[in-house]
Amino acid sequence: MTRARRNFHESPTGRVSGGFWAIIAFKWVKGIAFVIFGIAALRLSRAPAMPSAVQIAKFLSVSKENELVHRVADVIATVTPRQATAAGLASLFIAIVFFAEGVLLTARIWWSTYFTITLTSMGIPLELYELVHRPGSVRRWIVLALNSAILLFHWSRRNEFHDNKSSAPAH
After folding, report:
1. What is the pLDDT of residues 81-108, one digit of tens each?
2. What is the pTM of this model?
3. CA–centroid distance for 12 within its chain
4. Region label for 14, one of left (φ > 0), alpha (ψ between -120 and 50) or beta (otherwise)
C-alpha cells in the first residue's frame, strides 16, 4: 500500500468548511488569551510587590471602584511569585497546544480532528466539576456548551481529512 504525498494545503474534499474555520479561529483566540495571561503572570512573578486594586484599575483604565478590579486584586494578593511563575508557564504551554490545534486543522492533517477530540474531551470533566461547585456561573455553562459543540462537530466529521484515494489498497 503506497500513499501519495499531498501538498500542505491540498485536501481530499477541496477546502476547509466554515465550521472548521470557526473552530480554528476559536482555538487561536484562546491561544492568544493564554499568551496574554501567561505573560502577565510571569511579569507579576517578578514584581517587587503585587499590585493594588488602584494600580490595576489605572493600568486597565477603569474606575477604581470597579468590583471586578477589586476581586482580581484580592486574588492576586494571595498569589506567591512561585505560583505566578507556574501559572504563567502553564498558560504559555496551553497556548502552544491551542496554536498547534489551529495549525494542524488548517493544514488538514488527517489526525488533527482526533487530536482536537482528545484534548477537548479531556477538558469537559473539569468543566463539569466547576459547574457542580458553581452551577449559577453562566460563563462556565457557555464554555461547556462551546466545547461540547466542538467535540460533537469534530466527532461527526473526524474522517473528513482522510485521503480516500491514497488509502485504497494498491493493485
Report:
1. 999 999 999 999 999 999 999 999 988 8
2. 0.74
3. 27
4. left
